Amino acid sequence: MAIHRKGYDMDDETSGLLIRLLAETDALYLPFRDPTATWWAFGWTMRRHYPTRGLPWRSHERSGSAAAKATERKLKDLVDAGSIKTLRPRGIKTLCVRLTDEGDQLARALADIPNLDCGVATVKEIARQSQTKE
């Protein structure tokens, strides 16, 4: 299945990559249940810096392999389409990736997950219904 957007055709592998980035981003914002966990401070720091640094990118392919190069091209395609931003913050050697607002919405649509607008509408409806019951 190809996704057509702004003159850009997205194949299944590229849309899968976009959904993977959404999953990694959403995982960053899962509720922290135990502030005494060893990873708690790291998670808090990653959340705080996500808007400016993104998340560290790992292709899970062997460096220099044809598959790694193909994934790199798909990342570039997503950057060109305006779905993601690649960043290399000062002092960090690892490439970092962040979804743009448009990329987040597209990834949610591809994964059939409600977007932020749906969430806001739901919260407003809950607030409205709770006021009428009082």
Uncertain stretches = none
Using only C-alpha atoms, the radius of gyration works out to: 18 Å
The outline comes out as globular
Give the spatial strand order of the biggest sheet: 3-5-4
Q: Could you provide a short overview of the structure?
A:
By secondary structure, the chain is mainly α. 55% of the residues lie in helices and 12% in strands.
Provide an overview of this structure:
With 134 residues, the protein is mainly alpha-helical. Helices cover 55% and strands 12% of the residues. It contains 5 helices and 5 strands. A 3-stranded antiparallel sheet has the order 3-5-4. A hairpin with an 8-residue loop joins strand 4 and strand 5. Helix 1 crosses helix 3. The longest helix has 18 residues, at 116-133. It is globular. The model has no long low-confidence stretch (mean pLDDT 83).
